[in-house]
Amino acid sequence: MNQRIRISGGLYAATLTCYLHTVPLLFVHAPVIEKARWGAWLSVLLSGVVSSLVGLLIGWICLQFKQQSAVQAARSALGRFAGGIVGLVYALYPVWVASLVLRDVQEFATLILLPGTPGLFATLVLALVVLYAVWNGVEPIVRLAFPSLVLTVGACLILPVVLVREFSLLQVEPIFLRGYLPIFEASVSTAPFFGEIVMIFTLVPLLSRPKEVYRWTAAGAMGTALILAEVVLITLLVLGPILPTRLLFPSYDVLQQISLAEIIERIEMFFVIIWLSTMFLKLALYVYAASEAATDALGLKSHRLPAVVVLALAVALTRTWPGVIPLVAEAGTPEHLVTHTSWQGTILLLFLIAALVLRARAKRRVAAHG
Amino acid sequence: MSQLENALRYLRRWQSPEAQALADSVAKVTPGGPIPEELRISLAGAKQRMPVSPVLDENLGMLHLILGPSQDVIFRTFEIGATPHRSALLFLDNLVKKELIMGLLETVVVRLRSESLPSQGEQLQRYLEQRALTNHEVNPNTNLGKVVEAALSGDSILLVEGMAAGLGVSTRGWEHRQPEEPLGEPVVRGPKEGFTETLAVNLALIRRRLKDERLRVERRRIGTHSGTDVVIVHIAGLALPEVVAEVGHRLDRIQIDGILESGYIEELIEDNPYSPFPQVRATERPDVAAAELLSGRVAVLTDGTPHVLCMPTTFAAAMQAAEDYYQRWPMASFLRMLRYLFLLIALLGPSTYIAMTTYHHEMVPTSLLVGLMAAREGVPFPALLEALMMEFSFEALREAGVRLPKPVGQSVSIVGALVIGEAAVRAGLVSPVMVIVVSITAISSFVIPVFSMALAIRLLRFGMMLLAGTLGFYGLTLGLMALGIHLASLRSFGVPYLSPIMPPTAADMKDLMIRVPRWAMRRRPQEVPTGDRVRQRKRAWPHPPEKGGGA
User: Fold this and answer.
1) Which residue pairs from B381-384 have beta carbons closer than 8 angstroms and sit at least 24 positions apart in sequence?
2) I need a surface site. Which of A269, B111, B385, B547 has the fewest CB within 10 A?
3) Alpha-carbon span A18 to A131, nearest angstrom
């Protein structure tokens, strides 16, 4: 499906950064700052490095697929039935994450932006726009990632300038005050967020120059780490190491502190618009990925009907998730870690097996032809 | 012998089942009685397959039947040559230049009076074409369909006894508007002439600017009833043949009764027919059309309208005014940035106000918020309704201003301004701030150089207002995302509509928000598929003469 669409390495990296950084922007602070305190930003960078390495492995796997979609490759490697099952496993993961993202947006919207508005209404409107995006295919979603990333990077560059007056340098502690171990522990707690790099299984087959996958994957993952590290560091500088672990949305609280020359103030909404746009892109990409995987797994012709089903499923799942306080408390817990990483690991493992089978088959073919 | 009998003889001579059926129908008509319209229509439907007869009377009989009893259709019969050949000249009274008709008649009747003309049809045709007729364009038409088409286009058709062809002589000439400054695209600096309703004039206006033998013109006739002449213009070597072929293919696909304006064609050839955004650029300026051709684009000219279509186009092209390239580049760049800013205001101005005053008060500085609330205190409507009322009133005023005669239009504008600006505020229907917001928005929409783009923005503004009124900035963000997805999925003849931003093309950014100096635009835009990228030589920047050289 959509195999004729090709995206440049830069757009691929922009999309990767967009979808990878947006959820942790809200939830990453508490687990990393609690464990690593002033070294939290270093933990995030470390996670970025590990994530890059995983991304390189995925890149290698995708190169074995010869620009087939991952699910198509799994079907040709493992057979239609087993490959179809792998495809459905891969399709279910983005459905699950999409429902979590929908819930995150819903909670943020009803708590911060539109108190009193029914959450389901806000979610349904978002879901409709996401459906429109998915129906238009992956190309516009990927293209929209570029301006979103430009705005995000712009916001990251402006943030230190507009918040400089709020920095409280007296709170600063040595990074390794508690030793090296907390840095690694904090880094592990971000694995569920960075592990979502597995979703590049959908993007890599679209690359116009597949051989550049390693470079751009590393760029995308490290870009994400840099953005998050900066936000965590700014949060620490403004709120210190205690307060962010007690707040629902520390990043938003930091934005509310902006006050420069008594003219530039109360501009958090502009940052929220940028963040919402990246959340939207993430949702659209995940729903697209799930519908594409389901289409390939079931041998359907169009991804449009699966997209409706995927989105309906994701919206339905949002009704089963807990509210915002358990949501924040859950981030970084062992359960959170195990649930996410085991699913991510399973996907990685299944496609790795498919890649190895294809590789072995190709070697046998070469040997047979002398 | 009556015309009906001549026609019957023609149809009996023309050996085909279709002709026999038509002949039977003609035979049923009572001599001297009325001829049914259905019969005329059937004959007209078969005209493309009817060969021109060597018998003049048969041709005249058929043409009389096909063209019907129209007052402006003239059949002038006469004799030519020393051994007289019966002849006829067919033309439409108001589509020809009388002087040319007189000249033509003088040539064939007076000058050939003593000439002995060949008796064989083909020799006679060659003689007339090559030795007798002095007009600049003579085209032989061998079927009656072509004869009728040529006559309806303003040509005169010379039919001679014994000659199985009608010679179409170009005698076109009718009242037409002279090139004037286009009202829709005025400039302070730049050419002041615009396209007119006459295709030949429009082509000449382009040719005058591009004296290039590679300028290609492909003619088509579209519209079963209007028979509108449409031409595709491009520069061979610059426009990609695939794009030209695609334009031709899309034009050939059109099956319609009439094309009265290029807007018909625009809607019938665009990539996404449901989009509010223009996917081809319409211009009234020959200099803009020439610039588009120089960029490797293709132009489509339609007879009867001054609006020339240029394709492919992009969103960024709609933000470029002709004057950007005539003024100095820093000013042009400043104006362009201003345009983008006001584009945002035109789209989001009222919706941002609605979102801020309804949902996000915290964004407004306290002192301003107090003032705003005080101003809105007496207004009984929510901000959304207030804004919708104002916007609809303004749109109605604008529409009335366009439709009404000029003197009345001014009065309506004054009444409208008073009612909206003064009375509505005093009556407490709207707040003064809303009047300011709507006014700024209205001015902003006029800053967009391409009118059809401004229309699209005006339309989308209402959607944004509804989203802002129901979901605040959350709704506004979703609206922008939907708009972004729509724009990112649009293409104009294969070119992404949002290029060079999406997908990003660094080389084309130099003519996006900032218009770099002319000498820095060495290459043609990458967004347009073109056969030749280089626009000017290297090191084209101006500089004073070297030491020891120059004046």
Assistant:
1) B381/B429, B382/B358, B382/B469, B383/B353, B383/B354, B383/B357, B383/B358, B383/B434, B383/B469, B384/B354, B384/B358, B384/B465, B384/B466, B384/B468, B384/B469, B384/B470
2) B547
3) 19
Considering the domain architecture, whether residues B134 and B218 belong to the same structural domain is answered as: no
How would DSSP label each residue in B251-320?
Answer: HHT---S---SHHHHHHHH-S-TT-SS-SSEEES-HHHHHHHHHTT-EEEEETT-S-EEEES--TGGGG-
Q: Quick check: is A81 in a domain?
A: yes
**Hey, is B86 helix, strand or coil?**
strand
Q: Which of A110, A269, A288, A304 to mutate to test the interface with B (most CBs of B within 10 A)?
A: A269
Interface A-B, measured as beta-carbon pairs within 8 A, has a size of: 87
Distance CA B355, CA A6 (A): 38
Q: Is B368 exposed, middle or buried (0-12, 13-18, 19+ CB in 10 A)?
A: exposed
In a domain, A364, yes or no: no
Whether A90 contacts A196, CB under 8 Å: no
Q: Give A266-322 pLDDT, tens digit per residue.
A: 788 889 999 999 999 999 999 999 999 999 999 898 999 999 999 999 999 998 877
Tell whether B478 is covered by a domain: yes
Joined together, the tokens standing for residue B72 give: 């402006």
Q: Which domain does B246 fall in, by range?
A: 199-313
Q: What confidence tens digit (pLDDT) does each residue in B144-190 have?
A: 999 999 999 889 999 999 999 999 999 988 878 888 888 888 888 99
Whether residue B325 contacts residue B332, with contact meaning beta carbons closer than 8 Å, is answered with yes
- Distance from the Cα of residue A53 to its chain's centroid: 16
Nearest to A350 by CA among A85, A60, A95: A85
pLDDT over 90 at B37, yes or no: no
Nearest to B489 among A136, A147, A273 (CB): A136
Inter-chain CB proximity B481 and A277 less than 8 Å: yes
If you ran DSSP here, which 8-state letter would residue B152 be given? H
Q: Does B131 map to a domain?
A: yes
* Closest to B498 measured CA to CA, from B484, B513, B511: B484
- Spatial distance between the Cα atoms of A316 and A319, rounded to a whole number of angstroms: 6
Count of domains for chain A: 1
H/E segment holding residue B234: strand B228-235
CATH number for the domain spanning A238: value is 1.20.1740.10
Of A137, A144, A277, nearest to B502 by CB-CB distance is A144
Residues of A in contact with B359 (CB under 8 A): 113-114
From the CB of residue A101, how many other CB atoms can be counted at a distance below 10 Å?
24
Residues B212 and B331 in one domain: no
Assess if residue B175 is contained within a domain: no
ipTM for the complex?
A: 0.91
Within 10 angstroms of residue B463's Cβ, the number of other Cβ atoms is 16
Contact B514, B528 (CB under 8 A): no
B370 burial level (CB within 10 Å; 0-12, 13-18, 19+): exposed
Q: How far is CA A186 from CA A55, B102, B509, B531, in A?
A: 20, 98, 42, 56
Tell me the Cα Rg of chain B: 31
Which whole number is the average pLDDT over B445-461? 93
Whether this prediction's pTM lies above 0.80 is answered by: yes
d(CA B172, CA B151): 10
Phi, psi dihedrals of residue B234, rounded to the nearest 5°: -155, 165
Token reading at B474: 């959350």
Contact B382, B376 (CB under 8 A): no
| CA distances from residue A166 to A29, A41, A153, A180, A256 in whole angstroms, order as listed | 18, 19, 21, 29, 11
Q: Range with the lowest mean pLDDT among A43-57, A354-368, B399-413, B484-498?
A: B399-413
Q: Which domain holds residue A340?
A: 9-359
CA nearest to B262, candidates B209, B226, B215: B226
Q: How many domains would you assign to chain B?
A: 3
* A276 vs B contacts (CB less than 8 Å): 474, 477-478
